[in-house]
Amino acid sequence: MTLRPLLVVSVFAALAASWASPGYTQTNGAAPPTAFAASAADARGIAKDAYLYAYPMLYNYKTLYEQAVDPTANSYVGGFGRFRNYSQPYGPENKDIVTPNNDTPYSWAWLDLRREPWVLTVPAIPDKRYYVFQWIDLFTYNFAYVGSRTTGDGAGHYLFAGPNWHGETPKGIDKVFRSETDFIVTLGRTALLGPADVKNLQAIQKGYKLTPLSAFEHSAPPPPAPKLSFPKWDEAKATSIDFIAYLNFLLQFTQPTQPAEADLMQRFATIGIAPGKPFDASALQPDQRAALEAGVADGKAALANAEKQTTSSFDLFGTRQDLGSNYTTRAVAAAMGIYGNTKEEAVYVGTRLNADRQQLLGSQPYVIHFDKQDLPPAQFFWSMTMYDLPARHLVANPIHRYSIGDRTQGLKYGDDGSLDIYVQHASPGPARESNWLPAPEGAYDVIARIYGPQASVFNGNWTFPVPRKQ
User: Fold this and answer.
1) Looking at residue 459, what is its pLDDT?
2) Average pLDDT of span 335-363
3) CATH code for the domain defined by 346-469
4) Model pTM?
5) Which CATH class is domain 1-344?
6) What pLDDT sits at residue 29?
7) Where is the signal peptide (predicted)?
8) Is 347 a residue whose pLDDT tops 50?
């Protein structure tokens, strides 16, 4: 599943009147707006950099608001501290999302760590079934992983703590993960072996639990965290100069400024950016407003240009240490596939072009050939999924097959261990139908997902084979 039309896989008038109220921040009483100290000449460049810095946080907040705050949203998970599990495979009739993933249905949850840490409990996972919980902070850094690759398939209890918790590892906790931010999201994935496996998947998902630390320890909980008034998500406002209001709201839930960002935050402060401070766009001078608007436009243009130059998702996602101070890369990741996995966990590769650099069409039969030594190098498993273009939905077909991979029952390999996948609209015939990935009559895209990829996948030693005409 993706949240927007993406590279691989794939979510912003002034706000001052509503956000200058005391309920806007956690502080007592209404704070005055931050001063605008930059010259108009400097403000444009600062606004551009600040917009790129904020962009992934903005779309992360969009998901937070819709999943954890707004009960009228289709994606609402029930609030903070609750799992919403998905278990039914997607089919061509599902049009709500693009490039849906039937390999590993999702388990979504958001945590509010301001009051106390929370504990993730996972059961023992049987039959070497792949699963993973990817944990993402407000900045969109992948700061923690629990699952087959990192912690194994045994039962466990894992504690997630915010920036203001400084306790020792409690008894019964297998590992502590510390977040830079008070709000975090997990995107869990559990392997599904086909429609007949749904009940087995659901039984495993029922074993995923989230518990406040005090309840886990059977002790008295700490005092409640201050009640928040979450600003309503408005994409038009969040992608205007009022992105500053959203950013200021989010920054109050982050740990004190990273030393490497001290100068950056001082620079941002000159255009009104500071944790928890209201932003009053109506108070700006005309030249100040024009400078901010130009800076936002520059930021959007820089992001669009960076997207055009990005040909691989391999280095878009990771920890703060992985991404460093390249905030444009962090923004590109959010724009092209927010919540993508760190490359060591899973990668997504594929093509919509043939050997002649022409668009693949279902009316033309193709074969995707793997020599034995060139099969997708996956620690866990791999699959290829068919999507029509431009909609990027699953493709209806007479055998109800929407993806194919090393778990596909009846898949036939050559005597030498090689593998041919037949990609076309019409059946390739009874002898080849076991290896048939049905395509629409028109244009399509094939995306391969490799779970637990070997280093050869992202260092260039292994590449996805080019579909060749039959």
Assistant:
1) 87
2) 93
3) 2.60.120.1600
4) 0.89
5) mainly beta
6) 44
7) 1-20
8) yes
